[in-house]
Amino acid sequence: MQRPQTEADLKRLLKMAYASAQKGDYQAGLDICDFLIQGRDTEIAGLRERADIKVLMGDIVGAIDDLEAITSGQSREPADLYLLGSLLIQRGLMSDAIAALTRTIEACAETGSEYYLLPSYFLRAYAYLGSGQYERVMADCIRLPDGYRAYVNGAGMWQKEDMAREALKGVT
Fold first, then answer.
1. Can you tell me the distance from the alpha carbon of 83 to that of 39, in angstroms, rounded to the nearest whole number?
2. What's the pLDDT score for residue 153?
3. Which of 7, 59, 77, 100 has a CA 20 to 30 Å removed from the CA of 67?
4. CA distance linking residue 55 with residue 78, whole number of Å
5. Are strands 149-152 and 156-159 parallel, antiparallel or unpaired?
6. Would you say 85 and 101 are in contact if contact means Cβ atoms under 8 Å apart?
7. What 3-state DSSP class applies to 3?
8. Distance of CA 153 to the CA centre of its chain
9. What are the domain boundaries of the chain?
């Protein structure tokens, strides 16, 4: 396998890795990712793709490890932080999820990107709920539009108002 020379070469390898995993040949996909991780200029792309493949495999701990490797460095990409927060919730690691989602919200402000902003407030409110921080649940719910709904891995669909009701039960 040759090192990618262009962005198009890199995209081709990443697509090949994910396509292999989707067909059930996880090892072939992981091998491509591991090859990319060895290169300084393709390391982050390889880690991202490997995390995605590990999610497909059900290896949530491995995916979290790869995402933590990405986010512990220079990367402040909201997508990486958001996925990390989501997977941490799935593992029941609410304090770590809160930290990752807070970093996501900060990264959204820094980059001017709003795509992950509302979903991050929502998931962070869910993590606060799971850790018994009911006032903080309410503070994040206030930032969300009425009727806002989202899927929480391992918990199904939730609506802002349902979360707020649960938080109010905990406060009283």
1. 23
2. 86
3. 7
4. 18
5. antiparallel
6. yes
7. coil
8. 11
9. 8-57
Residues 6 or more apart whose CB falls under 8 angstroms from that of 16 comprise: 32
Task: Record the tokens describing residue 8, joined without a space.
Answer: 């198009």
If you search the block for the tokens 């292999």, which residue do you land on? 20
Structure tokens at 147: 């009727």
Asked if residues 117 and 108 have their Cβ atoms less than 8 Å apart, the reply is yes
Residue pair 113/139 in contact by the 8 Å Cβ criterion: no
Q: Both tokens of residue 164?
A: 């707020």
- Is the pLDDT at 172 greater than 70, yes or no? no
Helices then strands, counting H and E runs in the chain, come out as 9, 2
Length of the chain: 172
Amino acid present at 152 = V
Total-model pTM: 0.92
Least Cα distance to 56 among 28, 32, 21, 16 occurs for 21
